[in-house]
Specification:
single chain; mainly alpha; two-stranded antiparallel sheet; 10 helices; 79% helix; rod-shaped; Phage abortive infection protein; membrane; transmembrane; transmembrane helix
Length: 240
């Protein structure tokens, strides 16, 4: 309630006290206005007895409301500080991820392996996967090929970094910290949009074909996977 509302209530209470006194003695009993100080003293006692408890109650309500508003403001400030601290860490990690992926190199090929970097490496992996599938290869065959190409854990490293950022969102923006699903999903979407699309495709390939602890966490994070659905990227996961 706004302070103006309480002022109006207080005014009405005072008016009610005067009106009830007049109604009883002036209207019903038809008494004239007294010139006796004793009578006016009694009137003051009556008015104070009626009005003071009500005004005291209103004062308590105003105090409770003020404390509630103060608590809400403190909560907003605390949440803002949490978001500010989180975003600093969040965007720094995205920048670190980009640096790591810019240096990402992978040797891919069947008979003769060739070295590819970043986006070209992902394209080469996609070609390998499609070729294995076209030759009737199974999911296990693709997983085996990925493990062979990732003998130096380079795919694992970029997947792990991405997973750590997702975990950061999940932990720092949890329900217990005062955040909700929509707020987490918003940052998952930011993460995906700020990540090179070829790296996003590599993450999806890893989610589908590898059994790293990190990819299992991503796979089991329904909120995160739901963002892929929202962005229309989940079709890639089904088709690759």
């Amino acid at each position: 309630m706004k302070p103006k509302f309480f002022v109006i209530i207080a005014f009405l209470v005072l008016a009610l006290g005067w009106f009830s006194y007049w109604m009883n003695f002036g209207f019903i009993h038809k008494l004239e206005i007294s010139s006796s100080q004793e009578h006016w003293a009694l009137f003051g006692d009556f008015l104070g007895g009626v009005v003071n408890p009500i005004l005291t109650f209103l004062t308590i309500l105003i105090l409770v409301r003020s404390l509630s508003l103060h608590k809400e403001e403190v909560g907003k400030v605390n949440k803002h500080e949490k978001v500010r601290s989180f975003e600093t860490h969040f965007f720094n990690m995205i920048a670190s991820q980009k640096t790591l992926y810019d240096n990402f190199v992978l040797e891919v090929g069947f008979d003769v392996k060739e070295e590819y970097n970043s986006a070209n490496a992902v394209i080469a992996l996609e070609d390998i996967i499609l070729e294995i599938k076209s030759n009737g290869g199974s999911k296990e065959d693709i997983a085996h090929a990925l493990n062979e190409y990732d003998s130096e854990d380079r795919i694992y490293s970029v997947v792990r970094t991405f997973s750590v950022i997702v975990k950061l969102v999940e932990k720092k923006l949890s329900d217990s910290c005062g955040f909700d699903k929509d707020e987490r999903s918003e940052y998952y979407e930011v993460l995906i949009n700020y990540t090179d699309f070829s790296l996003v495709r590599l993450i999806l390939i890893s989610i589908k074909y590898t059994e790293y602890a990190q990819t299992n966490c991503l796979r089991n994070n329904k909120e995160f996977m739901g963002v892929f659905e929202t962005l229309g990227i989940s079709d890639y996961l089904k088709n690759i």
